[in-house]
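look at this one:
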Amino acid sequence: MKKTTKRSSKKSHLTENGNGVPPSPSSQPQPDDGGERTVKKVKLSKALTIPDGTTVSEACRRMAARRVDAVLLTDSSALLSGILTDKDVATRVVAEGLLPDETTVSKVMTRNPIFVTSDTLAIDALQKMIQGKFRHLPVVENGEVIAILDITKCLYDAIARVEKASKQGSAIAAAAEGVENQRAPNAFIDTLRERMFKPSLSTILGENTKVAITSVSDSVHVAAKRMQELRVSSAVIVTESKIKGILTSKDILMRVMARNLSPDLTLVEKVMTPNPECASVETTILDALHMMHDGKFLNLPVVDKDGNAVACVDVLQITHAAISLVESSSSGNVNDVAGTIMQKFWDSAFALEPPEDYDTNSEISGQLTLDGADTTKSMYQSAGFGNSFTFKFEDLNGQVHRFNCGSEHQDELVSAVMQKIGPVNDGERPTLLYEDDEGDKIIISTNNDLAAAVSYARSAGLKALKLDLVFADSSKQIKPNTDTATKQKTSVVSLRSGIFAGAVVLTSIGILVYLKRAKQ
């Protein structure tokens, strides 16, 4: 994470360049002129914000409960003071052997992170992230942290829409080809494809590329130490020269720290992802990106012709490398044409409907302010922390209800459920059950049962605990909906101009080429 030198002590001095100094007129956010999309129109995630005096163990539990890999930190004045990511937890806490229950996040966080305002152009925000080589960017509006931008969500959102459009025979391909024919000679397009899509991963893996390798018998601490030494966010588990699994910094956060397991006593074999999908050094950049998108993972092991692990690339690394390829071979004319194609393509892509299984509800349900403890406390409760948690169930009509409720009193939870479903059998109170990690149905009949249920949900990293409702009349039994996706709002991203635009449009057009080729 790129750092800045000094943070202003007043909210009025918060600036999008992240250094506490008011930006020059040329760096002020430009108005959204209809053709240029701002950050507030991009696919944002609700920011998890906690005091920087919080212990690392508590921060990990909260991150797991929200299923996020970054948390924003505030100081005693409720001002943004830092950011803590899964990689920080792995390399600054686990690798160093610090005790999470005794270490505050202020000791291991990245201080004074770069941030942007909600009126910043999306292209500028994404450029900051790619140039700084970090995935997360806080978004501030009127001195308040309102969201966090994750570059991978922007990328995957676009790819998902283009993929759906291609499968449905949408006019998006024709639109892209139309721009291609009108704006760029065939020689130009051929050159772009040659430089961007045909190159294999071997072209972006330098001689100094290193991969953290561990064995199944190594502890998580040992794996984290190797990740720290090589400055990577994942380790490949190898047995007899064959890849058996992968352990990422997010795995360490969610499967070890959030569950209060000892990194020294926990073997990587117990928490790794076994038999990960791998790419070869001959896999094209586009195919690698497509593999990661389809598999919904962020890290991809790369093997040579003998099956030996030679690297483990991530989305940001591939994107940065792709841009470098364009940057090293592009001319001003290429940038101008690429910018035109890019603008047309992304406007069309984000006008499409998302895939059916794509999240459509926004994670941003309200502004998360940094003003005062009361607001912060309310934020924790609404997010399912403190003495409350999020529950959901399906009623007799098939409608799914999602709500927050206190986690201390079982009667309060039952009352909240009855309030949602209305009168049933003259006010009969349902018996509440939930399914544990072994597939057993557990009854919530006491306050202790409720506390245990919530504890399980948090340790498992669940956003909401699904309930079964059972009445005396078995025909009234209600089971939870199997759809576990948290729906997010369909948003729009538009990138434009310059070398960055050229790289992204190349990726976009390449996806279409790939999909067309796959159909043939």
About this structure: The mean pLDDT is 71. Residues 498-519 form the longest helix (22 residues).
